[in-house]
Amino acid sequence: MVISTTETDSREILSSTFASRYVRAAIPRFKMPDNSMPKEAAYQVINDELMLDGNPRLNLASFVTTWMEPECDKLVMASINKNYVDMDEYPVTTELQNRCVNMIAHLFNTPVADDKTAVGVGTVGSSEAIMLAGLAFKRKWQQKRKEQGKPYDKPNIVTGANVQVCWEKFARYFEVELKEVKLEEGYYVMNPVKAVELVDENTICVAAILGSTLTGEFEDVKLLHDLLTKKNEETGWDTPIHVDAASGGFIAPFLYPDLEWDFRLPLVKSINVSGHKYGLVYAGVGWVVWRTKDDLPDELVFHINYLGSDQPTFTLNFSKGSSQIIAQYYQFIRLGFEGYKNIMENCMGNARALREGLEKTGRFEILSKDVGVPLVAFSLKDSSAHTVFEISEGLRKFGWIVPAYTMPANAENVAVLRVVVREDFSRSLVERLISHIEEVLKEIESLPSRVSTKTAHVIPMVNETQGDKPLKKSVRETQEEVTRHWKRFVKGRRAGAC
Ligand SMILES: Cc1ncc(COP(=O)(O)O)c(C=O)c1O
C-alpha cells in the first residue's frame, strides 16, 4: 500500500485520480497493515468501500429500524461511549432500562400492579431474549422433575416449523430437542391442535409466534392456550407458553387491543419483543419480560448492588452499548401510545396499498393475512417458466432488496417474495416498488426461461402412473425442482429471512 503524504508526491497527487490520492494498492485483507495511515485516508477508504453495500432504506428484507428522528440520533451519539454494564457509573441509564421493562410489561398486560417493578431485561435482540426465556423454562422444568424424582435429561420444546433460526440455535446450544409442527400448503403457521398433540411430560414450553417471520401472520395463541390448559388438566402437567412477539409485540397492542395473546392468558409465562423492529430503534435492542418473579428461577439471576439498591441482571453477555436502551426510552416517551398507534396504522395502510397493487397485476397470490405484521408475502401464480427468485434479482437493479425464499417443511415447494413495511417505507416508495415489479415482470417474460425446459415443464395433473411408477412429474414435484434450481442459482447472494 502506498500513501501519498510527502511534498515530493505533490506532482503525482495532482495528476492522480480521486481514490489514489490516498491509497494506490489494496488494503491487506488478512493481516493488519504494517504502518498507520492518516485519519482522512482511513475514513475515505472505508467510506468508499461501504458505498457498495445496499441502501438500508431500500432493504425491504428486514424488520429492523432504518430511520429515527435526528433528536434520537443525537441521544444515541451522545451515549455511544457508555458501557451499559457499568451500572454504578451510569445509574440513570439503568433506571431508563427499568422504565422500559415496566412499560413493555404493562403493554403486554402483566399481572404486576401499576406501581410495582415488572420482571424483565433489555437484550441485544430477540435472539438473546429467547435464549434467556428458554433457559428459564428449561431450569424450571428440571427443578420440578428433580423434585418428582423423574429423569430430567431429555427436555424438548414445541414450535412451528416456521420459527426463526434463533429457536434452532437455542435448541442446539442448550441441548433441548426441537419438536416442530410441520406446515401445510396454504397454512403457514403452527397449528395449535398439532402443537398440543406433540406436548409430552418433557416439554419445557410451547413457543407461539406473534408475527411469523415468513408471512407476518399471528399464531392463534388463545386457541393454543385453551387446548393446552385442557391437556394440562387431563395429564396433571403444567406446560407453559412463551410468545415470540419479536415483530408483533409492538403491533398487536396498538392495532388489535382485544386480541388475547399476552399475559391475559395465564399459561403465558414470558414474552420477547425486538425493540429494533417495530419498537422503532436501530439494530441492537430486544426485550424479554416474565409474567412474575416466580417464572424466572432465581439461580439464573445475578444481583448487582449499585448505589444501595438491588439490580438483578440476567443476560448472556457482559458489556454492551447504552445507546439503544436510551433510544428505546426516547421512542416510548416521545411517541406514547398514540404515536405508536399512528405509525402502525400508517404501516398497515401502506402494506394494504402494496397488496392491492400486486393483486392488480393478476400475477401474484398473496400469502400474508390482513391481520398481522405489516408485510406482504406473495408468490407467483404461475412459476413454470420464471420464478420469484428472478423477480428478486431483477429488483436489485433498482436498488430494492426483496428476499425470495422457500417455505419450511412441509411447504418447501412454495417460493415467496416478502416485503416488510417499515415506518420509513412511504406511500410514494410503495408506488415506485409496484411499478418496478411490473417492469421486472415484463422484462423476465420477454426472455427465454432460465430454468431448463425439462425443469420448467409443468404438467397440471397429479401423477399419471404406469404400474406404480409415476410417468410425469406432479405440479408439486416440478415446482420443487424449479425452486431447487433457483436456490442453487442465488445461493449466497440473497438475503435471508430475519
Ligand atoms: C419471530 C422472530 N423471532 C426472533 C427473531 C430474531 O430477532 P432478533 O433479530 O431481534 O434477534 C426474529 C427476527 O426476525 C423473528 O422474526
UniProtKB/TrEMBL annotation:
Domain of life: Eukaryota
EC number(s) reported in the record: 4.1.1.15
Cofactor: pyridoxal 5'-phosphate
Coiled coil: none
Gene3D superfamilies assigned to the protein according to its UniProt record, in alphabetical order: 3.90.1150.160, 4.10.280.50, Type I PLP-dependent aspartate aminotransferase-like (Major domain) (3.40.640.10)
Gene Ontology terms, MF aspect: calmodulin binding; glutamate decarboxylase activity; pyridoxal phosphate binding
GO cellular component: cytosol
Residues with N6-(pyridoxal phosphate)lysine modification: K277
GO biological process, one term: L-glutamate catabolic process
A Pfam short name: Pyridoxal_deC
Reactions it catalyzes: L-glutamate + H(+) = 4-aminobutanoate + CO2
Keywords tagged on the record: Calmodulin-binding, Decarboxylase, Lyase, Pyridoxal phosphate
Family per record: Belongs to the group II decarboxylase family.
NCBIfam families assigned to the protein according to its UniProt record, in alphabetical order: Glu-decarb-GAD
Protein name (Swiss-Prot/TrEMBL): Glutamate decarboxylase
